[in-house]
Design brief:
Rossmann fold; seven-stranded mixed β-sheet; binds S-adenosylmethionine; 23% strand; 7 strands; alpha/beta
């Protein structure tokens, strides 16, 4: 058996992969978000949500179902995403690390939002510290967008990898939220180093990050 075919077989045996196919979700990751929402109820009907790293759209489907017709979700990814059949969903193709990121998101969604989500991941190199560091960089970019766009009292969920920079990142996020939790939903693969940082109750910030001022 080639390495590739053993990977395909493993994936077919995976219960969340099968469930995602059965229920029509575009990713198995949809179940991680469902589990976090069920435990922490941090997205509500009618909420406006920005979702970073949205392709192929599994989380977007879950958010659209959660917020309902009176809510809205703007999915952002560097890769184009094929449209979803919900009126409350919009997509924009955008690199979050680019200088235009904040302005483009604000042009699409001028008002403050209730929730910022980020499931962004870098291309995995296989070198632990490098991948961890790139992931923390994306998580910092997500935090900057959260600081710019969240209403006071809003919530933030962001993917991180375990590693040496995680504590510093957590300290940064803790300054801006009433409560911060580290969450590992049951649908996470056992072999994965990923966790989610959940910030509940945005407190606001005294200083806007330099690169993210709205002009
Ligand atoms: C694990 S996938 C997200 C899966 C998604 N939550 C779902 O359920 O369908 C991570 C995504 O992050 C995106 N990404 C990585 N770096 C990015 C960046 N700098 N700007 C925007 N998106 C980025 C990737 O293109 C990829 O689609």
């Amino acid at each position: 058996m080639t390495k590739n075919s053993s990977w395909i077989r493993k994936r077919q045996r995976d219960q969340y992969f099968r469930l995602a196919k059965e229920k029509g979700y575009r990713s198995r990751a949809a179940f991680k978000l469902k589990q976090i929402i069920r435990s922490y109820k941090f997205i509500a009907r009618g909420d406006r949500v920005i979702e970073l790293g949205a392709a192929p759209g599994g989380w977007t489907q879950v958010v659209a179902e959660t917020v309902g017709n009176n809510g809205y979700v703007l999915g952002v990814d560097v890769q184009p995403i094929s449209p979803l059949d919900y009126p409350q969903v919009g997509f924009v193709t955008l690199d979050i690390a680019s200088e235009l990121a904040a302005k483009t998101i604000t042009d699409k969604l001028p008002a403050k939002v209730d929730v910022v989500l980020s499931d962004m991941s870098p291309n995995i190199s296989g070198t632990w510290e490098l991948d961890h560091s790139r992931q923390i960089h994306l998580a910092r970019k997500s935090f900057e967008i959260a600081q710019l766009k969240l209403r006071i009292g809003g919530n933030f969920l962001v993917k991180v990898f375990q590693g040496s920079e995680l504590d510093t990142y957590l300290q940064e996020v803790r300054t801006s939220f009433r409560t911060v939790r580290l969450v590992r939903p049951p649908a996470t693969r056992a072999s994965s180093a990923e966790l989610y940082v959940l910030g509940l109750g945005y407190l606001g910030m005294s200083e806007m990050p330099q690169n993210y001022r709205e002009s």
